[in-house]
Amino acid sequence: MDREALNALALGQFALLIRRQLLAHGVPARRIDWKVRSKRWVTVHPGVYLTAPGRNDRPMRSMAAVLAAVDGAVLSKAPRASPWACARRPPP
């Protein structure tokens, strides 16, 4: 299991990891299930886990929705993009 890589990944995803990422990094399915049962992690959507329970802000919820969606999903409304400091440019 590559803990450093998983920590870096979670840091960039608002403390969220998905089951597929965990399995790809060598975390056994039974360990994932134990983390959820023991309430060390919280299931936000099926297969999407919050590794820092207690966090419940808009950036985390938005990222959880993207991670739960199919590959290639993006946020489409400006207010949802605000955590990533997206801004409209004035017209030329």
Write structural notes for this entry.
There is one protein chain. The protein contains five helices and three strands. With 92 residues, it is α+β, with helices and mostly antiparallel strands. The chain has one domain (3-84). A three-stranded antiparallel beta sheet has the order 1-3-2.
Question: What is the secondary structure topology, with strand pairs?
Answer:
Elements: H1 3-11, E1 16-18, H2 19-24, H3 29-37, E2 42-45, E3 48-50, H4 58-68, H5 78-81
Antiparallel strand pairs: 1-3, 2-3
Short description:
This protein is of the alpha+beta class. The chain has helices at 3-11, 19-24, 29-37, 58-68, 78-81; strands at residues 16-18, 42-45, 48-50. The chain has one domain.
How many domains comprise the coordinates?
Answer: 1
Query: Low-confidence runs (pLDDT<50, min 5 residues)?
Result: 85-89
Mean pLDDT over the residues: 84
Largest sheet: number of strands, sense, barrel closure: 3 strands, antiparallel
Q: What shape does the CA trace take? A: globular
| Structural class computed from helices and strand pairing | alpha+beta
Order of SSEs:
HEHHEEHH
Q: Span between N and C termini?
A: 50 Å
Portion of residues in helices? 40-55%
- Work out the strand percent: 5-15%
Instruction: Please tally the helical runs, counting DSSP H or I stretches of 4 or more residues.
Output: 5
Number of strands: 3
The side-by-side strand order for the widest beta sheet comes to 1-3-2
Using only C-alpha atoms, the radius of gyration works out to 15 Å
